Amino acid sequence: MSNQPKNVVVILLDSLNKHDLAAFDGKQFDTPNIDRFAKRSVKFTNHHTGSLPCIPARHDILVGAWDFLWKPWGSIELWEESITAALRRKGVVTQLITDHPHLFEVGGENFHTDFTAWEYERGHESDPWKTRPDPSWIGAPSFGRGHTHYDNSRGYFEGAEDFPGPRTMRAAAKWIRDASPQHRAKDERFMLFIDEFDPHEPFDTPEEWAMKYDDTWEGPHLVWPPYAVDAIAQGIINKREAHQIHSQYGSKLSMIDHFLGQVLDALDETNAWDDTAVVLCTDHGHYLGDTDVHGRDLWGKPSVPVYKELGNIPMMIYWPGVTPRVCNALTTSTDIHATIAEVFGAEVKHRTHGTSLQPLIDASSERIRDWLLTGVWGREVQLVTGEWRYSRGPTGANAPLSLWSNRWSTMPIAKYPNYKMPNPDERAKLDHMPGTTVPVIRQPFADGDLLPFWAMAAQFEHILYDRQEDPQESTNRIDGSYESDAVELLRHALVQVEAPTDHLVRLGLN
Fold first, then answer.
1. Chain centroid offset of residue 449 CA
2. Domains of the chain, each with CATH number or no CATH
3. pLDDT of 329 over the 70 cut
4. Which is nearest to 152 in space by CA: 500, 399, 414?
């Protein structure tokens, strides 16, 4: 018999590859604390991304709405609100503990502001924390990135506990030990959101971790993976370097898993398992030499479709009173938002795309959805069902395409400070998002216009995998009736979510 939890803890580990976790049959890397958590959890094997990459994925979880059909990357809009705003109306205490730099950049505004309190551990990746590097830090191969903010910060980390990820986990464990009992004593409900940027690149760890999976490597460790297609064939890296990069990812994963143990210890010590649901999830995976439909090796998050290594992501949920088991039902990241809202009885006022996971958790239902949409703005749109993964790109020019936003921001690139979204021009007009009367700027783009870089691709794909007959998703089944059925369902899905008609035109579905 399940118990309705009073509180929720969400632990988001960034760029967490499902196939690299022992809990999902991964063999290469040690993750004893993720394994420890898995033993008490419902393990979701058919969980998928919605909007990609980092900030759009957090929009899925914190706002509950897919935004990749409307914009590439941006903050919470005027017509919507974070789940934390809805929880505040219910008197729920919310705490954010994070080292994720994109939440504090242009394009990431407003995600943290509605938390009761937030704590930011400085120095990860693009965080502009220090104005000059420690002179003892010699840097690491960057694969064309050049000097980064991280090069200014890295020399200030000595032992493992100085790195942002371990500091984030230590701060979360401290909050659970010190603050959560105080809130329980006052009968105050709470949600703790731990947004941990590891194992995101740079895959940088102290030497005792860095040598864990590649103890014959000599020289600076390769902590920055290339973002490339066919990297080995192009000579960007060789096979030995490829092994080193994947090993450094494993080292980062194992290091953050080690410090995750402090959070689990704190949950043990405060008897949190009695009244608290705990969600362990991610935003997306990370290509580390995985092969695409053409047999090319993929690295980072390059301009390719969302293959399963990136899009079929891990999720595990502990729920008081629920027996650990495996759940194979189709789910996506917006469903986490819907679940949190249901736990706390919070009213969500804007249009969302999630369904509560509670019927799957308590086994009162075997499914909550028949399909989901996932993708990157301006690129292929992916339809995922229990049977198919269908990627459909533009049938001609990548147009028409519109960006809908009143915040008008996209991911900043420190290396290219002048590479920004053009301001709305004379073609822009006020329009309306589905489910709201708040006017929104709709900027149309035509073939040849400068687009946010996420929409840029050397080629676009039509790919259809039969997930039942081909669970490894290795054979493209674009052939006759298979695709015609997928086309009809994709058209239905886009119409149901009231996606811009641009997509029906550019994808050849009108």
1. 28
2. 7-119+154-369 (3.40.720.10), 372-506 (no CATH)
3. yes
4. 414
